[in-house]
Amino acid sequence: MTETDGALPRTPSFDLSGKRALVTGASSGIGMGCAVALAEAGAHVVCAARRVDVLADAVEAIRVAGWAAEALPLDITDLDVMGTVLKAQAPFDVVINAAGLARHSPALATSPEDFDAVMNVNLRAAYFLSVGAAHGMQDKGGSIIHISSQMGHVGGIDRAVYCASKHALEGMVKAMAIEWGKTGIRINTICPTFVRTPLTQPTFDNPQRLAWIMEKIKLPRVAEVSDIMGAALFLASDASAMVTGTSMLIDGGWTAD
Questions:
Q1: Domain locations in the chain?
Q2: CA torsion, points 193, 209, 226, 120, in degrees to nearest 10?
Q3: What is the spatial distance between Cα 173 and Cα 133, in angstroms, rounded to a whole number?
Q4: What is the pTM of this model?
Q5: C-alpha to C-alpha distance for 10 and 3, rounded to whole angstroms
Q6: Catalytic site residue 127?
Q7: Helices then strands, each counted (H, E), the chain
Q8: Which of 1, 11, 116, 231 has its CA 20 to 30 A from that of 160?
Q9: Which of 152, 146, 167 is nearest to 228 (CA)?
Q10: Count of CB atoms within 10 A of residue 65's CB?
């Protein structure tokens, strides 16, 4: 049924009933928010994270709400273990990678250890998680979503390493989208501004940092986890069936300058 038939177009479905989803970094913050969004839409969500106790609490809360979820203790920087786990699991329809690491410092003070740690999580693990997920999606397609950052599009104070990892992630996603598009695999990023979570609260408690953030964000507030959840559901669902190789900037207008 098309517009040329004289019928009204229909909104694509956001429903994820019958879909299997993997969310990394799902024990708290943005990752947990994404897991909730997918579970609420009907997906069976495999929630992965390193912090076993916190992860168990998050999964139990999702189940108590009446949705389907299970816990998967996983450190995505251990590529051998991650590869084994992905092969052992039934193929996923949706994968959201919300695992991330930031170690901020002036560029002149960056240690090789901090550089490697950030790149191992934000780029190396993201790369091979994408590859592993795509292997399982070859026959049916699917949606891979990385939680990137507005810092994948601009620079930031004391964030040379973090920005490097996220700019690289954006390029990686574009290249993978070109390779995998014909098989029906979509891959995109979500690029939030500063989101209020327990991990980011120290930044908001710093008056100088808060002033810098509020000067850059054009809307009169910082982001909340709920601001990311709708974008995650959109990119996971058929509503975004023609969207691949791009980024959704949820930055309050930060990058509009």
A1: 15-256
A2: 60
A3: 13
A4: 0.95
A5: 10
A6: no
A7: 9, 7
A8: 231
A9: 146
A10: 11
* Strand 69-73 versus strand 247-250 pairing type: unpaired
Which CATH homologous superfamily contains domain 15-256? NAD(P)-binding Rossmann-like Domain (3.40.50.720)
Q: Which entry of 162, 180, 194, 234 is annotated as an active-site residue? A: 162
> Which of helix, strand or coil describes residue 192?
strand
How far apart are alpha carbons 67 and 246 in whole angstroms?
A: 30
Question: What does the pLDDT look like over 36-70, one tens digit per residue?
Answer: 999 999 999 999 999 999 999 999 999 999 999 99
Q: Which residues contact 177 (CB under 8 A, 6 or more apart)?
A: 186, 187, 188, 244, 245, 246
Q: Return the H-helix or E-strand segment holding 191.
A: strand 185-192
Q: Is the dihedral of CA 233, 235, 240, 246 positive or negative?
A: positive
Q: Residues 6 or more apart from 8 whose CB is under 8 A from it?
A: none
Q: Which helix (H) or strand (E) holds 231?
A: helix 225-236
